[in-house]
Design brief:
By secondary structure, the chain is an alpha/beta fold. The chain has a domain at 96-112 and 230-427: Rossmann fold (3-Layer(aba) Sandwich), CATH 3.40.50. Helices cover 42% and strands 14% of the residues. The strands form three sheets. It has a six-stranded mixed beta sheet, sandwiched between helices. Bound molecules: pyridoxal-5'-phosphate.
């Protein structure tokens, strides 16, 4: 399979190359040149497969020319099976919970850091380590985090001997659970840096490092694991098939509501539909950072200021992966996307009429403020004794407000465990901080390792060079 850029000006890459690359040189994002298509009979024949068996079926066509089938099987087993090393704690991996008639949750927080990002980053770490071993190459991963991504990336890379990972977080500005999920991983190749600045400072330093990589030794490539990485999207396609197959698909369609920030998770649902899975509707659920809701509901694709909300993992100004959907909705015209995204930087833009109506065929959207988020957590808890985290609550509320049909299952992706976000949960009237799952009971006692550094690029680069493993 070949991967092409959404802006049409970069050479096509194979899977191994795309795995080790971030943005395309023309500023676009890589997408498959064509998608594998599965017939209804073939999808129906997967009804009894385990999560790992299903993941192999879905992922294999995307990587086939880079990774032999047996090796891929072993990687996927290690990532998601109950006796693998990745610590997905539930035998179903992505269990479904029923809230009401035709109203479901898919729990995507059973991985080691209690958020859905584990699904992608556990697989990504293993895929990277596999190809690096084969190439006799070592790389440096550098990332900035305000919480969830950093811990999931660290957990995904802790056994990868060919990767040194440096995660920058703003000193004393992430929650204690989030910090400890990063700093208590003591492997030699894991490096936490607390920068005496804010999240933007961290992100700027990472950006500057990618723009000028000369601070690294010549033999160390710098790799990004942010949500534009194609392999992360690919891993997320699997659970859409899994949920559908559990609820009568592909014979009957299902719908999904997805708490959305960078549009990576829900874009994977769109791909599942393109690959043959009958999906009736995809609901983009946003918080007050609602550029996607404004775009999908009224074709207003303009940037607004960042707002801090009770659902911080969805606090974004621009949803980077939306460009991948737009590429399809503009008939895969790279020049049109280049023009649109260039104008988007400096002016107020609208989608073309045909692109706008293409987006609205499958997608609806809804925006939920903090007050309503808290009300939904309280309401669901009162009726079912199920405790939602604030991101998942936004998904549930958006599903209730914008579902097209009541006679097919609506599945909200529960993207995080409530224990990660005690503030919102307690505002909803829950009497104390929600308990961590028992496998994490020692989190608050475990030893931490973290380097506090000045908000200065040269200092950070010096630290990285001093701490590369041999
Ligand atoms: C990252 C994240 C999201 C948003 O996912 P995108 O793929 O960026 O749209 C939603 N909820 C939680 C808990 C997250 O960590």
């Amino acid at each position: 399979m070949k991967y092409i850029s959404t802006r049409g000006q970069s050479p096509a890459l194979n899977f191994e190359e795309v795995l080790l690359t971030g943005l395309a040189p023309d500023g676009g994002l890589y997408v498959p040149e064509s998608l594998p298509k599965f017939s209804q009979e073939e999808i129906a024949s997967w009804a009894s497969l385990s999560y790992t068996e299903l993941a192999f079926k879905i992922v294999e066509p995307f990587v086939a020319d880079s990774i032999p089938a047996d090796d891929l099987k072993a990687i996927i087993d290690d990532t998601y099976s109950a006796d693998g090393t990745a610590d997905f704690r539930h035998p179903s991996v992505a269990p479904l919970v029923q809230l009401d008639k035709n109203e479901w949750l898919m729990e995507l927080f059973q991985g080691p850091t209690l958020a859905f990002k584990d699904f992608a980053l556990q697989l990504l770490g293993r895929l990277l380590d596999y190809v690096l071993e084969r190439r006799h190459q070592k790389v440096v991963i550098m990332g900035a985090t305000s919480g969830d991504t950093g811990s999931a990336a660290i957990q995904g890379c802790k056994r990868c001997s060919n990767i040194d990972i440096f995660i920058l977080h703003p000193y004393e500005r992430v929650s204690e659970v989030q910090r400890r999920q990063m700093t208590t991983v003591l492997a030699d190749n894991i490096h936490n840096i607390a920068v005496t600045g804010n999240f933007d400072d961290c992100q700027s330093m990472v950006k500057a490092s990618f723009n000028d990589k000369s601070f690294l030794p010549a033999d160390r490539q710098l790799v990004a694991v942010n949500s534009i990485n194609w392999a992360r999207i690919m891993a997320q396609i699997v659970y859409y098939f899994y949920a559908s197959l559990s609820l009568g698909g592909p014979l009957r369609p299902v719908a999904f509501s997805v708490p959305t920030g960078n549009f990576g998770d829900i874009y994977a649902g769109y791909l599942a539909s393109k690959m043959g899975l009958p999906i009736d509707q995809l609901v983009v659920a946003t918080n007050k950072n609602d550029i996607l809701h404004r775009c999908i509901s009224s074709n207003d694709f303009t940037k607004h200021e960042l707002v801090h909300t009770l659902s911080p993992s969805m606090d974004i100004v621009i949803s980077s992966n939306f460009e991948r959907l737009l590429f399809d909705c503009y008939g895969r015209d790279g020049a049109a996307i280049n023009d649109l995204m260039t104008r988007f930087q400096t002016e107020d833009v609208k989608l073309s009429d045909s692109a706008f109506s293409n987006v609205r065929e499958l997608f609806d959207s809804y925006t939920v403020d903090d007050e309503q988020t808290v009300k939904t957590i309280a309401d669901v808890y009162e009726k079912t004794e199920y405790l939602l985290d604030p991101h998942s609550a936004i998904g549930v509320e958006a599903a209730r407000k914008s579902r097209r049909r009541n006679d097919i299952p609506m599945i909200t992706l529960a993207t995080a465990h409530p224990a990660k976000f005690p503030e919102a949960v307690m505002k909803a009237g829950y009497p104390h901080e929600p308990e961590l799952p028992h496998h994490m009971a020692t989190l608050f006692d475990d030893e931490e390792r973290c380097q506090v550094l000045d908000n200065d690029l040269a200092t950070v680069h010096q630290f990285i060079n001093d701490n590369l493993t041999a």
